[in-house]
């Protein structure tokens, strides 16, 4: 009996101890002053939408990551609706649909999101579930907000169960107003963004009684922006195309975390903010930012988003098959030929840039052209094959001297490429492996030209091969400033320091959009006959057809499906054995 009583006492003591311990843990949890929320954010997606072998994450994996992170807010910081053909052919509608499927709460527009015009951006805001926030974008005449609301308020449950009121708003760098075509922003203006940010933050805190205030800004100078704001707990940024996880002091000296998640959907940002329920402020010492890469999300997907992507792709197939023009002949593309000489397809592309921008000169790098124009009907898909990268058309100013320097370098680079090409052709003729001779790593930087006529002599030393140059039919003036149209890759190409770092005067839409507009004019075939480069040493450098006929034993060309084969079958069979080498070589 005594043993039984002792056993009962032991059990009761154990249960009381367990209850007491559980009560203490619960009490400690209830008394905890830390309430943490998580914000998943993206920026500068530029129309990328699905997983690729080039490091893109895509919306399907994003949705799975959001669920995995148990995100309280999902935000995007602009340059979202414009870039890849998937986005541009529906003027951002396809991307907006996927943002709905993922569950975005809000976004702020980037400078490229205005490329379809302000009315289209407003329509995307009104017809979709997420809010587009840009408090410093106002109607010029009325000085009223352009978008329906400058901010979003969302009540979220923090990880400890605390309900928090979070205010989110967006502003855009006012310097971006002039970086898009003026017609895209006609009737509206961008006011100074830091002052507007402080004003909205004060409203969210004092009038709306928000616990946490978050600013989104598409911004070229995050440090400068933060130094002029007050009352903001965190800044989620876009535009700089880098990973940012820094802290800057605001106007009152308070440290404000600033984060940005790279570009082209290569990363997802996860920002954790901890709110102290006793002091009623965000504890900046416990703020954390995590970046998820494509490698981190490779196994993630969401079936609902996958289905939405498939439906949009099927819908867009109809658009891609639409006929936009007719050609009387085939304009060939060759990966090799466009790196050693001027090609007709290069003339067409640069003429399109001149036609849209009214610039004096146009450049296009050889690596930016990936297809040709077929004989007969030209479809949207054909144009995407020519210009598949979603590059943007920009205009810069250069002196005549700078332009000639770029032309000289391009000619020198094409001569280097041609030396390799000649060795490859000789190797093929001898039954050897042509790819024992490697192209320069920067072969894609050879330029195609428009608006300029250059005579050059290959027997002269590098840097002094140009004998005569004209722009618009007049001798080039070395000290005169000319407007140059090119893609946004060339302006960052280290091969051409003359243009790197120079300011962008104007940004237009994508390069394929310019090409489509030009094809529709019917002027492209005449433009194909306008030679820009003339080798006065007598070599055939300005005729695609003559070059190909004089070299019947050319090695294989990476022609687009629209152009067909441009080399003999025997050589094709030989090259099949070298495909492994070919795949490595042609990444450039």
From TrEMBL:
Protein name per the record: Bifunctional metallophosphatase/5'-nucleotidase
Region of interest (Disordered), ranges: 540-562
Keywords from the UniProt entry: Hydrolase, Membrane, Nucleotide-binding, Signal, Transmembrane, Transmembrane helix
Residues spanning the membrane: 566-584
UniProt keyword annotation of Translocase present: no
Domain annotation Calcineurin-like phosphoesterase: ranges: 37-242
Highest taxon listed in the record's lineage: Bacteria
Signal sequence coordinates: 1-27
InterPro entries reported for this sequence: 5'-Nucleotdase_C, 5'-Nucleotdase_C_sf, 5_nucleotidase/apyrase, Calcineurin-like_PHP, Metallo-depent_PP-like
Domain 5'-Nucleotidase C-terminal: 337-494
Listed SUPFAM superfamilies: 5'-nucleotidase (syn. UDP-sugar hydrolase), C-terminal domain, Metallo-dependent phosphatases
Protein family per UniProt: Belongs to the 5'-nucleotidase family.
Keyword Membrane: yes
